Amino acid sequence: MADSRKSLDELETELVGLKIRLRRVEDFILAMPTPEDYIPQESLSDDGLVGRAIEVLKEYGNASASLLQRKLSIGYARAARLVDKLEEKGFIGPQEGSRPRKVLLNEDADDEKGTSDK
User: Fold this and answer.
1) End-to-end Cα separation, the chain, in angstroms
2) Is this structure's pTM higher than 0.85?
3) Which domain holds residue 20?
4) Residues 6+ apart with CB under 8 A from 57
């Protein structure tokens, strides 16, 4: 009987150790950064790139992340966010497969970016 009691004590000790390790893993996971932590806050605001992107769209007549990447010298993620932002504001049309998006700019676009000649 003493042997079975000793092994039960060992199991209980092992269980306590596993619970402690599990708590550490949970704490580690909760402390991990989220994807939002990797997006610089300045890239979430209109930092002048929207205005420059609108100029590019007017010049080329279509919109795509790759066009903005090349002309604004930015990475894909930032260019894709710009495309999404421009679509939200109504400057470009929705995605149509792999084709570039249509530019829907009108005179209000100049007012939006703050460079109206009026």
Assistant:
1) 96
2) no
3) 2-32
4) 63, 86, 91, 92, 103, 105
pLDDT of residue 102: 86
Q: Are 60 and 67 in contact (CB under 8 A)?
A: yes
Task: Kindly state whether residue 77 falls inside one of the protein's structural domains.
Answer: yes
* Number of domains into which the chain is organized: 2
In the chain, the percentage of residues whose pLDDT exceeds 90 is 22
Q: Residue 62: what pLDDT?
A: 87
Q: How far apart are CA 94 and CA 31, in angstroms?
A: 37
Query: Which carries the bigger pLDDT value, residue 8 or residue 113?
Result: 8
d(CA 113, CA 54): 8
Q: What is the CATH number of the domain that holds 63?
A: 1.10.10.10
Compute the distance between CA of residue 17 and CA of residue 7 in angstroms, rounded to an integer.
15
